[in-house]
Every structure is written in structure tokens, then in C-alpha cells.
User: Fold DHA1 family inner membrane transport protein from Actinocorallia herbida.
Amino acid sequence: MPLALLALAAAAFCIGTTEFVTMGLLPQIADGVGVSVPQAGNIVSAYALGVVVGAPLLTGIGARIPHKRLLLMLCGVFVIGNAASALAPTFGWLFAARVFAGLPHGAIFGVGAVVAARLVAPERAARAVSMMFLGLTIANIIGVPAGTALGQELGWRFTYLAVTVLSLVALAGLALFIPHQPRGPKAGVRHELRAMGNTQVGIGLITAVVGFGGFFAVYSYLVPMLTNVTGMSDSSTTLVLALYGVGMTLGTLLAGPLTDRALRPTLYAGFLLLAVGLAVFYFTVHSTVPALVTVVFIGMMGSFITTPLQMLLMTKAKNAPTMAAASNHSAFNLANAGGAWLGGLAITAGWGWASPALVGSGLALAGLALAFVGAALDRNPDRAEPLPEPVTEGAAVLEAKGSARP
Assistant:
């Protein structure tokens, strides 16, 4: 079990690195493919587009494929997408490669979360899922700064090449350590779509889009906020992003055991504390040390709500949680786009560089309100862990025979 979770975390580390490292290499990428920096920024959107489309699409296509085999196939697509990014000769090819690399992102996290939850006892499911997410947060501490430094020193193509190599290592780990988990006899895209029709799943996804948008309203403008308001230098960008990653890692470590104990209260506390932290940041951003402390806290609360949101969707989707778990990451990317857009509107309106913090706080409070609405409409509250898919009759017979042995 620990090695299987480590393999899942390694895959998450590669995904987190390739998703966020691009933002720090836009000038080098622009020079490399002969476009302006703003135009090069479209490849960030290209990856997000791949995530939003690919999560439900690939999960639906692979609805009947056993989870381990599906994970290996998805990671294979991810490897090809990053290799194509490293070799892209023009901006058009690079744009297409980033869309392709983003397609398996949400599906890997969705399938991986279901696999992780079923590797352990039900009362430890959230902790197992959070251990996989830990790879994503550590990527912000190690992978993104290292990838940025590598790209600035040797060229941006080497960064994507390094991600490709690391992804092959993660793929080998998944092949070696993930156990076979058979799909149930009812597995299929209709079964998954029926689960997605659950009202609680829909409310959960909307909650993720709105509430997590508060996190991205600030994250998207964090560097210009700190340089224009706090007065920090551009060279401090790597430190700030690493601190954000430290906060995210702490939040992930806390969220797992707390979600196992009380799912909804953990979610409520996360949204409330995120809203408070963002509101406080509006005032602390004017001073370096308080600003950095608040940055760590915001990162902590942002990742803190990820695990209970993931577990809530998996629980409410019951015996077909894979598409719901994957769609959660589509929701996160929509939150990224929406939060950045609303934060940008506030800046453009002349409210100042610190204004995205207030926008983000409002979105987090809206997410909290939606979470309460979901609880009020929930007539059948479940335990914090997803229910297992039914196994095939043959597997059930074998299991019964095994349990009958002395």
C-alpha cells in the first residue's frame, strides 16, 4: 500500500510540475517559438482546456477498463503530451501538445483517488487520497522551482523533457505497485453518467468552481500584487511560490485525517478560514513579513478544501465515483479561469492590486454558502468514504472461498 500511494503521488508530482512550471517560463517559450509573451500565455489556457474536456471524456471512454490499466493508459497519454511539448517546432504545435498533455490530468486524479481510497480501510480513505494530492503540493515546492531554473538555464524544452522522463518513472511505479481492482458488472459510461446526475454531485461541482475560484483570484495575481503593493523584487518570485507550496502541503496533510473524522465540518472550516485569510491578505499585503505569513495560510486553506471536496463527490456518486472524482478537477480548472477573470476585473476597474483578495474572500464565502445548501438538501447523508463497486460474481466466489480457508 505505501509503495502504491507513493507511485500515485509521483504521478501527481509530474502533473503539478508541468501544469505550473509553464507560467515561469513564458518569456523563454515566447522567444523559442517566435511569439509575444501574452500570446505564449495562451498555452497555459491550452493545458486548462485539455483538463476541462479530458476529465469527463476520458473517464467515460474508460468506464469499463480496470482502474490499473486505465491509469497506465492515461499516464501514457500524459508522457506523449509532454514529449510532444518538448519537441514542438512552432507555437501551433506547442498549443496542440499542451491541450493533449492536459487531457489525462483530471482523469488521472479521478481514477487515482478512487484507487487510493480502496487501498486502505474505509476509515482511512481520505488520508490515502490526501497522500496522492501531496505529490501535487510538493511539486510547487520542488518541481516548479527546479523546472523553472532548468528551463532558464538550458532552455524551456529541457523542462518538458525532464517531466517526460519523470513521468516514465512514475508510470513504471504504477505498473509495479498498483494492485488490480476489477470493475463491477454494472461498470460503464451510463452507470457513471447516472451517478453524475445526483443532485449532491452537481452541487459539489458548483461549490468547487465558485469556492475554489477564491483561491485562484489571488494566486493568479500573487506575484504582481507582491511586487506592486508589498514592494518585493521580481527575483523573489520563486521564494513566494515555494512558500505557497509549503502552505499547500501543510493543508493537505491536515485535511486527510480531519476529513476521515468529519467530512462536511472540515469542508465548512476550510472555506471559512480561506475567506478569512483572503480578507486579511488585503491588509497584510502592504508589509513583507505579514504578507508572506498570510500567503502560507492561504495556500494551506486552498489545499485544505481539496480533499473533502474530492471525498464528498466520491461519496455522493456512490458505486460510480470515478467520473465525479475526475470532473472535480475540471471544476478546479474552471475555478482557475473564473477566479482569475474576476480578480482581473477588479484590478481593471481601478480597485487596486490588492482587490483580488476581497474578490477571492467573497467567492470563498459563496462556496461556503453552497456547501451549506448541499447539506440542507442532502436527505441521505453518507459516511466520508466512497462505497466500493460491486465485484463480479466470480470474484465474489473466490473471495468467499478465501475467507472460508482455515
In short: The domain at 188-388 is CATH 1.20.1250.20 (Growth Hormone; Chain: A;).
